[in-house]
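Try this one yourself first.
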């Protein structure tokens, strides 16, 4: 007699999970549009806050809209958000009153931010 394992039974999902999935399926286009708008506007707002913040750099916050945009919209949109975020930081560096030792320093900083 051969002993075979029965296939694992699928657990019943809670009603809240099923409702959330149904809502997301019905409103997928709307959720995608809202995520796109948030992902594009957030780097600009973070750049403004970073400019007037002072000593604390908010560079790590640029990751959040990039992750959201990449997850919801796609990889190409995420790459575009990286370019937007680096551009916002470059503009912030160029308009700052700080005197750089070389004109290449803001460009170098932008290149490093784009890589990481």
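Now uncover the answer:
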């Amino acid at each position: 007699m051969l002993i075979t394992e029965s296939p694992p039974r699928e657990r019943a999902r809670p009603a809240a999970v099923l409702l959330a999935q149904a809502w997301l399926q019905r409103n997928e286009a709307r959720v995608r549009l809202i995520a796109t708008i948030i992902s594009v506007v957030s780097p600009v707002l973070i750049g403004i806050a970073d400019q007037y913040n002072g000593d604390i750099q908010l560079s790590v916050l640029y990751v959040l809209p990039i992750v959201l945009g990449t997850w919801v919209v796609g990889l190409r949109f995420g790459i575009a958000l990286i370019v937007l975020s680096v551009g916002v930081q470059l503009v912030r560096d160029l308009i700052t009153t700080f005197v750089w030792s070389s004109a290449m320093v803001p460009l170098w900083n932008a290149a490093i931010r784009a890589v990481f």
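Discussion: The chain has one domain: 15-115. The mean pLDDT is 84.
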